[in-house]
Design brief:
The chain is of the alpha/beta class. It has a single domain, classed as Response regulator (Rossmann fold, 3-Layer(aba) Sandwich), CATH 3.40.50. It is built from 4 helices and 5 strands, in the order αβαββαββα. It has helices spanning 14-22, 38-53, 74-79, 107-125; strands spanning 26-32, 57-64, 67-69, 82-87, 102-105. α2 (38-53) packs parallel to α4. The protein is globular. It starts with 13 loop residues before the first helix and ends with a helix. Mean pLDDT is 88; it is low at 1-10.
């Protein structure tokens, strides 16, 4: 059990900090285009693949012609390290991302070069 009393909070050690740094980052995203069909889903696929290729966990919500799919929940936002909003119009529920660091860009940018968008986000959050 160690020198700490039961129920006491143990101070973070260097090992704890290094372990947290090694944990996979959880990145959430939202994609939405004007028509809500092709670009919404193409951007979502590219974004998810690029986030996972960067060694992070990913969840991407689409706001398309059929409404929201794979919705980002409060639990997702609570554990999210950051978010990427790839949209060509204002997304529904943007205010829910206020406590999470995020970047936004057009869907076309993610479709053409999602790895660069993800790299920019990861560099910004450290």
């Amino acid at each position: 059990m160690g020198p700490w009393k039961e129920g006491a909070v143990r101070p973070l050690t260097t090992f704890d900090r290094e372990r947290k740094d090694m944990a996979k980052k959880y990145i959430v995203g939202v994609t939405s285009c004007i028509v809500g069909i092709a670009h919404t889903y193409m951007a979502a696929d590219a974004l998810k693949r690029a986030i996972e290729a960067a060694g992070c966990e990913a969840k991407v919500e689409t706001q398309g012609a059929d409404g929201s799919e794979n919705a980002i929940t409060e639990e997702d936002l609570a554990r999210a390290d950051a978010a990427i909003i790839a949209a060509d119009l204002k997304i529904k529920g943007l205010e829910r991302f206020e406590p999470v660091p995020y970047i936004s860009c057009p869907t076309e940018e993610v479709i053409k070069d999602a790895p660069s968008v993800v790299a920019e986000l990861l560099e910004a959050i450290g």
